[in-house]
């Protein structure tokens, strides 16, 4: 079928349909379901809460990674000093950039968006068994200087959820 000629009527009727189908087909970057081990940094969560990590609590295996996706403009990522397993390396991502973090130590890690810390944009990653340091985090987060009052309030709810599971 070398040098086949496509009739004009075909081009006028079928090609616009094909192009239209491509335009309305869902693009991979806009899929609604999060990929495994993906946490989205969003302006508004599914429940209407402003400035959130979705999911707010991510569970992984020790040594696993999490891809933090700057889903909406203006978000960044940072670990919270003093609210991670002993010996865990601190990490920080750039504003408006996706950040992949490997969690080598077992336990609970608290993360926040530095740009929205005053609003209380916090989340939790649990690598393996949370009991390794959950009680320490519960005891220390109320006085942690890196957290705003809004972050303490949200984190308290998340920690209660984690403790009750």
TrEMBL record:
<dbReference type="Pfam" id="PF00127">
    <property type="entry name" value="Copper-bind"/>
</dbReference>
<dbReference type="InterPro" id="IPR000923">
    <property type="entry name" value="BlueCu_1"/>
</dbReference>
<keyword id="KW-0813">Transport</keyword>
<feature type="domain" description="Blue (type 1) copper">
    <location>
        <begin position="49"/>
        <end position="126"/>
    </location>
</feature>
<feature type="signal peptide">
    <location>
        <begin position="1"/>
        <end position="31"/>
    </location>
</feature>
<keyword id="KW-0249">Electron transport</keyword>
<keyword id="KW-0732">Signal</keyword>
<keyword id="KW-0186">Copper</keyword>
<dbReference type="InterPro" id="IPR008972">
    <property type="entry name" value="Cupredoxin"/>
</dbReference>
<protein>
    <submittedName>
        <fullName>Plastocyanin/azurin family copper-binding protein</fullName>
    </submittedName>
</protein>
<keyword id="KW-0479">Metal-binding</keyword>
<dbReference type="InterPro" id="IPR002386">
    <property type="entry name" value="Amicyanin/Pseudoazurin"/>
</dbReference>
<keyword id="KW-0574">Periplasm</keyword>
């Amino acid at each position: 079928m070398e040098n086949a000629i496509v009739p004009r009527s075909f081009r006028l009727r079928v090609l616009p349909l094909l192009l239209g189908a491509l335009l309305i087909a869902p693009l991979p970057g806009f899929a609604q379901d999060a990929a495994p081990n993906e946490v989205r940094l969003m302006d508004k969560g599914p429940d209407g809460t402003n400035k959130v990590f979705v999911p707010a609590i991510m569970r992984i295996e020790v040594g696993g990674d999490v891809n933090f996706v700057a889903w909406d403009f203006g978000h960044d990522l940072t670990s919270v000093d003093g609210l991670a397993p002993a010996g865990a390396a601190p990490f920080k991502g750039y504003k408006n950039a996706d950040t992949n973090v490997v969690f080598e130590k077992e336990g609970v890690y608290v993360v926040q968006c530095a740009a929205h810390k005053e609003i209380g944009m916090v989340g939790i990653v649990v690598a393996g068994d949370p009991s390794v340091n959950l009680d320490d985090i519960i005891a220390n987060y109320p006085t942690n200087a890196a957290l705003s009052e809004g972050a303490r309030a949200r984190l308290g709810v998340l920690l209660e959820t984690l403790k009750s599971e």
